[in-house]
Amino acid sequence: MDEAKSAVAQETVLKVEHLKKFFPLRKSPFSRAKSFLHAVDDLNFEIKRGEVLGLVGESGCGKTTTGKTLLRLYEPTDGKITFLGKDVTHLKSAQDRKWFHSKSQMIFQDPFESLNPRKTIFDIVSEPMNIQNEGSLKQREERVMEILKRVGISPPDAFLWRYPHELSGGQRQRVAIARALVMNPQFVVADEPTSMLDVSIRTQVMTLMMDLIADMHMTFIYITHDLAVARYMTDHIAVMYLGRMVEYGETEDVIQNPLHPYTKALISAVPIPDPEFKRKSLQIKGGIGKAIDPPKICRFYERCPFATERCGKEEPPLYDVGNGHKVACFLYEKDGK
Amino acid sequence: MSAVLEVKDLKMYYSTKQGMVKAADGISFTVNQGESMGLVGESGCGKTSVSMSIMRLLAENAKIVGGQILFKGQDIVKLKEEEMNKIRWAGIAMIFQAAMNSLNPVYRVGDQIIEAILAHEPDVTFEEARERVAELYKLVGLDPKRMDNYPHEYSGGMKQRAVIAMSLACNPDLIIADEPTTALDVIVQDMILKELSKIQKKLNMSMIYISHDIAVIAEVAEKIAIMYSGKIVELSDAVTIFKKPAHPYTVGLMSSFPSIHGEKKKLVTIPGEPPNLLNAPDHCRFAPRCPFATKECWEKTPPYEEIEPNHYVACFHPQNLRKQVSING
Predict the structure, then answer these.
(1) Can you give the residue ranges of every domain in chain A?
(2) pTM summary value
(3) Which residue of A202, A268, A273 is in closest CB contact with B259?
(4) Does A59 touch chain B (CB under 8 A)?
(5) What percent of chain A clears pLDDT 90, i.e. is strictly above it?
(6) Contacts with B58 (C-beta within 8 Å, 6 or more apart), sequence order
């Protein structure tokens, strides 16, 4: 039993190699794009079954684009995505698309906008089964009741024929989670699923998601700007800056011992709910820009307090400093392998 | 220390088709000269209603039905609209929620601040006002050259700074900041909060910070009031609120908030959802979610009392006083 369990834990569900997503910037709809916004630029990582990867960074760093590209809601510009051993980078045939989209799902940020106001809860939650032609109407109803109960909407039959406006924010997000999980997906991307919720409701939804991930052995990508939430929800963290992954490692490792100057600044800026604790924050210059045709130098060069001449000339690769902790900064060249 | 603002038993209700919404129901607190107070609560608990009552910027169906708001000893509830106009901005200024949207996109940012100054101080000439805006820009960390830019040329953090500069334009005694950093990224949030704290101390101003984020409030406020369902359930200095919370809701709130500092504690969830303020019940409003609720809590509203010096709580079963009780049981 234990062997089977560890074999499951070892299995790589998603592998991402050199993933790129550029958006063309055109002057008019008919002109050729002269410049490109590098929203996601050369990402490499893999996620095992049951693992939660947190994508963190400020707005505009490309974390949502990464999530959407992985779910193939965007066509990748370059690179390779392997899901359960199959190349899903392009999904040419309808059959492949159907297979991939039945196994991967997304949970959106705003439960007030992600649910169609003109559909009942049953219609919303059963829609994925509908699209995939799964089961009879009766089976669908049973499955919807089962999943609603699982996400804490009880009694489920009292909610089946209601509309989203009759539910509170927390209940709506539970419905959105139920919709994502109704087909038993193996891979879920959740984009800031709790940032619109109130404090007391947020903890309920976070706890629910942690239970569901453990129960269903899902592979999860949790996109958030809130490092405190990421600390509780994720096993690994990838810190993104202007489309680049600047640091990757085990969550506690990254939070307790951030290496990249950007991660250090980010972590030192998080307010601490303790009035007696005096933070020392690392001040960095300027604000986050946009990666439009970026030169091949460190993207954090202009804001970095530790920048050297070399940082303005070449781009640092990801150095592995041990325990799977990787950082894209020349400061760690000696420690890296 | 003299009190700049004293709110006494404020009641502000909205009348709707479905009934009365008691958004502020018996709110009392004092803000002293140079003091910063935090008003914390979840959405819909009435914290913005309290600030709108203080500014007297009420919706048509909203009415202050009882209580007093004493600003430097003067009850502003009774003031006429023209008299209130003089106090707004010059006496009490406000930094609105989503400040990025509170600038007019078709006017230059500097001109909008000059307009506010000229409206309140007719003796000031345009040139003097412009000079003052340049000073304010320096104070909030903006380049005075950017005065002639339009809002879309500013980043989110810069707009927030401009709005802060605008709130300072007429040297107010009190600034109410309603979720001043909610839409900003952490690094920018950190800079803005530092800036606000620095200016507040430098000018010895009074501040009321309104937020749902207790971590932000912990950074900036000396005194904290916790609101739940239209009432203040607990009020004390920041350290007491965080280290010795007495109201079960505050206790729950503190242990349900994730932090990146210290060891990773298990998050405690508060069961249930905040109540609807429509036709609010006569008993303790937290009773349905409270692990300590007894028969008494379902029958009466607990009085808002000073249980220790400067520690006010509205609860029949205050925690953490004589013996240590945690919400985990």
Answers:
(1) 11-332
(2) 0.89
(3) A273
(4) yes
(5) 74
(6) B12, B52, B64
